[in-house]
Specification:
By secondary structure, this protein is an alpha/beta fold. It is built from 9 helices and 11 strands. Strands 3, 4, 5, 6, 9, 10 and 11 form a 7-stranded mixed β-sheet that branches. Strands 1-2 form a two-stranded antiparallel ribbon. A two-stranded parallel sheet has the order 7-8.
């Protein structure tokens, strides 16, 4: 029977995700030589070549991809075993590390933690703010147990590493300066703002969400200013420097000099999801946190007018 080494399989999976031996070594706190040696040993144990030279890098062979397909099922089963063992040893107690993007923390995570303190005081939630895409890297690397992210910037639903749970569709509203000519206009559409100066992130999820929404409305937004935080974005809107799309979940950041309008048509939305490593959802503590997040999302009610 083939000798399957879980530690070495995890190194192979990390190499598949990170792309280089150096990046794999950094992620696993190993030296590049140690990573190479472990993978060479795994190749000998399995009796198949796993890597081939590709310029200055290495490429996984077809055999390596076959091994990883089966390894994912093994990893998922080990997660289930850990979850069941945790439930056996701790009952309703346990620590759950949550990685969440900025607006999800006050809108979903904080209400969920508040509810758990009443219903499940033995569940200890540790929160780590992270970009939507980074949350999955933390989840894959074992740095968090649950990730809150956006569907548009997450691995596909068929990714064997994760189980995804849809939480809500968060509408995007338009933030305008209080004295803007369209601040009180009836039937405001995104296309009505095609000639405006826009404020959004220079790169990453928020840049893509804004540009995709505007392009779907028939225009390419002119980016006048770039900012990543809602405090900075809304301060610039208030000063009359431009307009911006703002997620409904960021309502707490709104300012007196900013008018937020719900679009009458072509309302863009971002899909908010939770994800865990496949199999981990069966753990009592993780299951309770997921349930609390679902309740927090449902408590926001229909995402209608503000």
């Amino acid at each position: 029977m083939t000798d399957w080494d879980i530690k070495k399989l995890r190194i192979l999976r990390t190499l598949s995700e990170r792309g280089t031996v150096t990046a794999t070594a950094e992620a696993l706190l190993m030296t590049p030589s140690a990573v190479s040696q472990q993978l060479t040993n795994l190749s000998k144990q399995l009796g198949v070549p796993l890597l081939v030279a590709h310029g200055r890098r290495v490429r996984l062979t077809d055999a390596a991809h076959l091994v990883l397909r089966h390894a994912e099922a093994v990893f998922a089963q080990l997660e289930r075993a850990d979850a069941e063992l945790a439930g056996y040893l701790q009952g309703e107690a346990g620590e759950v590390r949550v990685g969440a993007f900025s607006t999800a923390v006050p809108a979903l995570v904080v209400p969920a933690v508040a509810a758990l303190r009443v219903t499940s005081p033995g569940v200890d939630v540790r929160v780590r703010e992270a970009e939507a895409a980074e949350a999955y890297e933390l989840l894959s690397g074992g740095d968090v147990d649950l990730a809150l992210s956006l569907a548009a910037h997450a691995p596909t639903a068929g990714d064997p590493r994760f189980t995804r749970v849809s939480l809500l569709a968060d509408p995007l509203d338009v933030a305008l300066p209080a004295g803007h000519r369209l601040a009180a206009a009836e039937g405001l559409r995104l296309a009505d703002l095609s000639a405006e100066a826009w404020i959004f992130g220079g790169s990453g999820p928020w840049s893509e969400i804004t540009t995709v929404a505007c392009e779907a409305a028939g225009f390419v937004p002119e980016q006048a200013h770039s900012a990543a935080g809602w405090t900075a974005i809304l301060a610039m809107v208030e000063a009359g420097m431009g307009v911006a799309l703002v997620p409904r979940m960021a309502a707490a950041e709104r300012r007196a000099g900013v008018v937020t309008r719900v679009l009458s048509a072509d309302q863009p939305r971002r899909q908010v999801i939770a994800a865990v490593r496949r199999g981990a959802q069966d753990g009592p503590a993780v299951a309770r946190v997921l349930a609390a997040l679902r309740d927090a999302a449902a408590a926001r009610g229909p995402q209608g007018n503000v």
